[in-house]
Design a protein that fits this description.
With 484 residues, this protein is of the alpha/beta class. The protein has two domains: 83 residues, Sandwich (Immunoglobulin-like); 368 residues, Glycosidases (TIM Barrel, Alpha-Beta Barrel). It has eleven helices and 16 strands. A five-stranded parallel beta sheet has the order 3-4-5-6-7. A hairpin with a 5-residue loop joins strand 15 and strand 16. Helix 5 packs across helix 6 and helix 6 crosses helix 8. The radius of gyration is 23 Å and the shape is globular.
Amino acid sequence: MLPNKLPLIPALLCTAVLAALMSVPATALASHNEAAYFEGSTDLLSPVTRPHAIAQLQALGVKALRVELAWHDVAPGANSATKPGFDATNPGAYSWGEYDALIGEAVRLHWKVLLTVTSPVPRWATSNKKAPYVTSPDDLDFEQFMTAVARHYGSEVSLFSIWNEPNHPAFLRPQFNSHGQPASPRIYRGLYQAGYAGLMAGGLAHPPVLMGETAPFGYDSVNVRRIGVLHDVAPLAFLRGMLCLNSHYRKSGSCGPLQAVGYAPHAYTLPAGPFYKPSSRTEADDVTIGVLSRLTNALNKAAAARAIPAGLPVYLTEFGVQSVPNRELGVSLSQQAQFDAIDEHIAWSNPRVAAFSQYLLKDDPLGGRAGASVNGGFIGFQSGLENVKGTPKPLYYSWPLPLTVTKRGHGYSLWGLVRPASGSTKLTVLVRRKGAKRYSTLLAVSTSSLGYWSSSSSTQGTAWRVRWVSPSGVKYEGSPIAAY
């Protein structure tokens, strides 16, 4: 059992300066809301680490999980080149293992589950029968598998998603053909249609399915002789190819529309921070958190071409900020906490965004250089709330209480969320004034029924943080956050 205190959250500091309370009342926000999915596959899929990880997530305020279900993990004869004789639509033919345990625990806790069905696939379902078992998976085999998935998990899963990062060669191949033009979008289209049909055949009349799950960077085309074909397709080029649209978002074939309830980008950004905008001509089809409008504009054009439903919401189903010791993509530990809150505020402020997410509870071990995964290498993500040894980072304390402080003229605009709250609650905002060594109370805030709040302040400070005590007496205190 956890003690009556979030693990390693500092105890409440003593405050004597209640006179510093702001005279301007804090304003509770309206009913804007977005789901926050948490993914921690390594910790959550292991029966050894799952109980402690689940307890941590409960304390952190998690209410929804993203689970990646690898077809290869559960299929019979997955390493055989010949498909075994079995009814592929019968869920009883598969070994669901720890997926059942994790999803069952989420259901018990009344957490929403987003199930992303993805590669690697059984060897017998690939076109070349070669590792890493991601090359041109067979559509019919996938349709039958998704029928079994629907029959097995249909009542327990809130959202389905088809494939993880299908524009990345670690998950789907080929990405480009021998002429350097994108090949994966049409492969994905076939898999998506097959998967959707399988869910319907499994009993879901109107499957709640997300499309996309695209990595944020890539190429529209490649010079095969110079750089080869093991590269990502740019996410917007992938979207157009999947929907049979040309570069002007006009139908370039006889494809019909695809049905979905949302589009899911993985809008990771670079160490430059949340507002980084890929700006060169060759980056025009990349999608990071700082240029989400590129995606929504593309979705609007695709809807105008009648390739997808109008007004599709955006689900940021995988996201995180990498920290040191990652040498290429990592920022400082304090920047990780601050950037993640700013990223969430960006997402929350966009009316098309229906979900944000956190990828990893605990860091992966360090792997190879970014991009090594295309050749089967392990790269590892350092986007967790804890380091690889399980020691909490500043983000561990800030993630339950995200806070942003934005400079506005001579004052500041503050925004935040009490993630573990189950209704309207009260919190305290602290400030370290210029020249001061200690924090003092800046203001008391009442949140909306969804836990969000905003306010403004003219008090000059160098750092801000949030305190909150849950109704059961658990004490939380966020990490220091600087203004931007």
